[in-house]
């Protein structure tokens, strides 16, 4: 599957549709070239591995007591370092990130995940290396 976004639920955006078409076309081009016997050299790519889902701060009644900090909003896939602002309480207090390592939040403040008690997902950046591949032509 291919998920391309972000975009609000129920909204069709031309720019997002164009990105989805391009990525599907690249995938189909790869399959065709592979099936024709084309050799692909080794490569390394950066990926983001999910570490954990992070909920909004809540009180003892399970009510949300803070919102995503404005400096974190719309910063999906950007580095988040110790001390960076995460949440802003309804009283105006900043709740900072206290982690020991840099993480890369994604799915920040997405409406589809609110009911799942997910403010964002912490990911770590990694590099994956693939060996060369080639399909022998039959």
UniProtKB/TrEMBL annotation:
GO terms for molecular function: hydrolase activity, acting on carbon-nitrogen (but not peptide) bonds, in linear amides. Residues 44-125 form the AstE/AspA barrel-sandwich hybrid domain. InterPro entries: AspA/AstE_fam, Aste_AspA_hybrid_dom. It comes from Bucorvus abyssinicus (Northern ground-hornbill). The gene is Aspa_0. Pfam families: AstE_AspA_hybrid. This is ACY2 Aspartoacylase. PANTHER family: ASPARTOACYLASE. GO terms for cellular component: cytosol. SUPFAM superfamilies: Zn-dependent exopeptidases (SSF53187).
């Amino acid at each position: 599957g291919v998920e391309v976004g972000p975009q609000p639920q129920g909204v069709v955006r031309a720019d997002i549709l164009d990105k989805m078409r391009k990525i599907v076309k690249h995938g189909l081009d790869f399959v065709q070239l592979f099936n024709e016997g084309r050799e692909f050299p080794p490569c390394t790519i950066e990926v983001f591995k999910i570490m954990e889902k992070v909920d909004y701060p809540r009180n003892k009644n399970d009510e949300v007591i803070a919102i995503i900090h404005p400096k974190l909003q719309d910063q999906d896939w950007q580095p988040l370092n110790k001390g960076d602002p995460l949440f802003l309480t309804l009283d105006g207090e900043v709740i900072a990130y206290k982690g020991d390592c840099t993480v890369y939040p994604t799915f920040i403040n997405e409406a589809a995940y609110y009911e799942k008690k997910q403010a964002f997902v912490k990911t770590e950046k990694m590099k994956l290396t693939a060996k060369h591949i080639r399909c022998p032509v039959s």
